[in-house]
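Let's practice the habit of predicting before peeking. Look at the sequence and jot down your guess about where helices and strands might fall. Then scroll down.
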Amino acid sequence: MKNLLIKSAIASGVVLSLATVSRPVMAASFAVSIENAGVQNAQLSNLVNAHVDTFDSETQGYSATGFQWNDGTKNIGSYQNTLVMNAEQYGGAGGTGKYFDVDTNRSGNGQKVSTLNLATPQSYFGFWWSAGDSSNVLTFLSQGQVVYSMTTADVVNYIAKLPNKTSYYGNPNSTFKNQDSGEPFAFINFYDVGGTFDQVQFTNIGGTGFESDNHTVATGYNSINGNIVTTAVPESSSLLGVFAIGFVGAASVMTRRVKKKSVLQLS
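Done guessing? Here is the structure:
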């Protein structure tokens, strides 16, 4: 009986420890929404001081040093550890130009995390999430502290419950119409309610790729638009979530990214 109690206490301690480390300090509440199927841009009229990065002027391929995000004469921020790809069935808003990716297989350099460092704190971020899967993690930080972290499994699950869920699946652009039909394509909005962030991290686990385009930031917004995915203060784990999707990613890479080719490291 004594041994049983000891084992129970140890087990409880392990569970408690996991629960403790899995919850980073969260300083803000985020509202997350998705636009209607086929939408590939933010609703700019709803945003204050908005800026959009299309990546079309960037060099194709992997770069450890990344590149600057300049909008005319204004410095918006800088990207580090980047992979830029030409439009194809997996990405490229409008079916043209280039798009942003995080893919350890394609980069040829073990790229699992890319970072956007913002010159000015922002309260909104949005992007066109293409060829989506459950192995993507988006993390927002302010002065080095995590304020929100979410896996895209939440978005996948939300879309799965929609009556028109099939309209989100497959590339919506005429050039690659309905290609990659097994994965969702959607524009996702992230609203920092009552707070700001100055860094965004894009993480992919399992080599399945984290494709996106039309990255949009804004210092403010008039209202929360789109179909609400979540508005809760984040209780979900950034660490346990990562562990869980690691298993998903491992299975996903077997069925998905075999078709992708590595690109040469550029810098």
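How did you do? The first strand starts at residue 29 and ends at 34.
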